């Protein structure tokens, strides 16, 4: 009986991993504990500021694929000069090389695609009530954290909140 329960628990765990990986955005290498996804090449520091790494999807194979893509992209101009058939290969290698950079603009895909909370406006900041940090208009987390509210910067400071990265809005 214990063996059957253990096997069922193991199978459920494997299924959960498959479901999590199936729902991850394209190019995601891991999921942070706050639910965001990362495309960082290494696990070290991938979810800094997001409560750490929950699951790591990438293995050592993408690193090898990335280095192969870079070498293919470097060799593609020489091949294109020798034959006209190499142009499609160079075009295919360029996006692969661009996708393999360690720091991308959308390293945390969920905030890039997440809708901003209704409200806000000129002179208003978004206060993350979970961390007591306020975010200025136009920044990555303005109106996009799980728990928060809009208020004036002066009210945020009066409630003890501090600016994100200690950079006040005004």
3D architecture notes:
The chain has 170 residues and is of the alpha+beta class. The chain has three domains: 2-58 and 104-110, no CATH class; 61-99; 115-166, no CATH class. It is 41% helix and 14% strand. It contains five helices and seven strands, in the order αβββαααβββαβ. The protein has helices at residues 2-23, 60-82, 87-99, 109-113, 153-158; strands spanning 30-32, 37-38, 53-56, 124-128, 133-135, 148-152, 162-163. α2 (60-82) runs antiparallel to α3. Mean pLDDT is 72; it is low at 61-107. Keywords: Signal. Residues 1-22 form the signal peptide. Pfam families: DUF3761 (PF12587).
What descriptors fit this protein?
single chain, about 170 residues, alpha+beta, 3 domains, four-stranded mixed β-sheet, three-stranded antiparallel β-sheet, 5 helices, 7 strands, DUF3761, signal
């Amino acid at each position: 009986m214990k063996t059957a329960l253990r096997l069922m628990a193991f199978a459920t765990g494997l299924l959960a991993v498959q479901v999590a990986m199936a729902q991850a955005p394209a190019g995601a290498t891991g999921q942070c504990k706050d639910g965001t996804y990362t495309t960082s090449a290494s696990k070290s520091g991938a979810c800094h500021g997001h409560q750490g790494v929950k699951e790591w999807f990438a293995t050592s194979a993408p690193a090898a694929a990335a280095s192969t893509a870079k070498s293919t992209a470097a060799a593609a101009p020489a091949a294109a000069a020798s034959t006209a058939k190499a142009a499609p290969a160079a075009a295919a290698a360029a996006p692969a090389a661009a996708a393999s950079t360690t720091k991308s603009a959308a390293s945390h895909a969920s905030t890039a695609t997440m809708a901003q909370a209704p409200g806000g406006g000129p002179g208003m900041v978004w206060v993350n009530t979970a961390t007591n940090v306020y975010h200025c208009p136009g920044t990555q987390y303005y109106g996009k954290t799980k728990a928060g509210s809009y208020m004036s910067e002066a009210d945020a400071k009066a409630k003890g909140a501090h600016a994100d990265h200690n950079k006040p809005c005004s």
